[in-house]
Specification:
The chain has 448 residues and is of the alpha/beta class. The chain has 16 helices and eleven strands. The radius of gyration is 21 Å and the shape is globular.
């Protein structure tokens, strides 16, 4: 009984706290996994799409044997983890949250990133819910249901998307670590709406083999955790780092707040909390400069004129199944965005890729080795019940919710969403971004 009470308390703590308890044998992985599996099976909203209980119990027994002998495979040996249902797990169907793939073939092997976690001794509890085909930031799924968080908010508030289940799994203590994907904010927006940490990596930081794509040029693997320190630890495992470099950034790093576009039309709570966060950073002795980044407006101007590379690539990814009769049943908003992709020409793509190249160059010139700070999203979580039946309102809120995060994908900026509000309902988040490839630096400065 005492052990179960300890596990229940630990399940609400950080992954590093759990790792410490496992390493010192205060708890056993098998007991923790059994407790979390029971919680998953009793889920009130559909956070998990697939629960891999047999696999998890088998992996936990092996982890305990290693830990008993003092032969842990990594800092996170015995640690539970869950996967957005875009990642292959051997013997399981990868649904991508869609009716199109509901009866698809079972995966013959794990995705590379799942395999890396397994080799580090991590315990895969299952596959997590998402918006259909990983489109939209609202978080609703018409086929599997919407994974609303139960933590201090009404059951109609958006969980964010597309990694909705991954964010709620961490926020509601189903898992200490969940893995998602981010194409336009799909890790950071759910993190912001659920009050957890969300990290979008540079494009090629982790291997993507064995993953169902929305956009091959923009998709990145992302992390959802309770703390930045947890993010750093899992990043070391996934990126193959053997040690922690504590000299990644200057003692007085440069911070920049873009004054154009990303601060426009903020909800009052978002604006107020952002200002407070900036004052705290300044109060810690850091200088923050104001800059203009014209590439931000250019990105949306070009996408409005020439279309979205996400739509183009999503159409080419899924067009073979889009012609099936049941394709008419997929989320109408997702279908509309995907079908737009068939009208995008190679000439259009040239304009889009030119915009991305020029924008990356401009940001590097203006920001260099510094960091940009701005709200992760300009809005608070919307009430889904008020927008589902109004396509125009749905579209408007979806675009606005992803407005700031999308820029990081267009210009391959590693970005971390950091909770800045303690309000259970009105959650707000600060985004920290840097130039491509400076993932470790973003994580390091966020921890400070």
């Amino acid at each position: 009984m005492k052990t179960m009470s300890l596990i229940e308390d630990l399940a609400k703590q950080s992954a590093l706290d759990i790792a410490n308890a496992l390493r010192h044998r205060h708890i056993r992985s098998i007991d923790l996994v059994k407790w979390l599996l029971t919680k998953a099976k009793e889920q009130i909203t559909p956070v998990f799409l697939t629960i891999t209980a047999e696999r998890a119990l088998r992996e936990a027994e092996l982890a305990d044997k290693r830990l008993d002998e003092g032969n842990g495979l990594s800092q996170f040996d015995g640690m539970p983890i869950g996967w957005k249902d875009l990642f292959d797990m051997q013997g399981e169907i990868t649904t991508a949250g869609s009716i199109l793939y509901l009866n698809g073939p079972k995966a013959t092997k794990d995705a590379d990133i799942v395999s890396i976690a397994n080799k580090a001794g991590m315990i895969s509890l299952g596959k997590l819910n998402l918006t259909e085909l990983a489109f939209t930031g609202i978080g609703d799924n018409p086929h599997f249901g919407t994974p609303f968080s139960l933590r201090g908010q009404q059951l109609s508030m958006s969980p964010g998307g597309s990694s909705s289940g991954s964010a709620v799994a961490v926020a509601d203590h189903y898992l200490p670590i969940a893995i998602g994907t981010d194409t336009g904010g799909s890790v950071r927006l759910p993190a912001a709406f659920n009050g957890v940490v969300g990290f979008k990596t540079s494009k090629n930081r982790y291997p993507r083999n064995g993953m169902t794509y929305l956009s091959r040029s923009l998709d990145t693997i992302g992390l959802l955790t309770k703390t930045v320190a947890d993010c750093i630890s899992i990043d070391h495992i996934f990126s193959g780092q053997l040690y922690v470099d504590n000299n990644l950034i200057e003692s007085k790093p440069s911070f920049f707040i873009p004054q154009n576009f990303v601060l426009d039309d903020l909800d009052k709570e978002v604006e107020s909390d952002f200002i407070k966060a900036i004052e705290i950073i300044k109060g810690s002795g850091f200088e923050i400069k104001e800059i203009e980044i014209p590439a931000f407006e250019s990105a949306f101007r070009v996408m409005k004129e020439f279309g979205s590379i996400v739509s183009y690539e999503a159409w080419n990814e899924h067009k073979d199944v889009m012609v099936a009769d049941h394709a008419k049943k997929i989320h109408p908003y997702s279908r509309q965005l995907i079908e737009k992709g068939q009208n995008i020409t190679l000439s259009d793509l040239e304009h889009i890729t030119k915009m991305q190249f020029q924008g990356k160059k401009q940001i590097l010139e203006k920001v260099g080795e510094g960091f940009m700070l701005y709200p992760t999203t300009p809005i608070l979580p919307p009430d889904i019940s008020k927008i589902l039946c109004d396509q125009k309102k749905y579209h408007k809120i979806n675009v606005k919710s992803l407005r700031n995060t999308t820029l990081s994908n267009q210009f391959d900026l590693p970005s971390l969403a950091l909770p800045i509000s303690n309000e259970e309902v009105k959650k707000t988040s600060l985004q920290i971004s840097a130039c491509s490839g400076r993932d470790s630096q973003v994580l390091s400065i966020a921890k400070k």
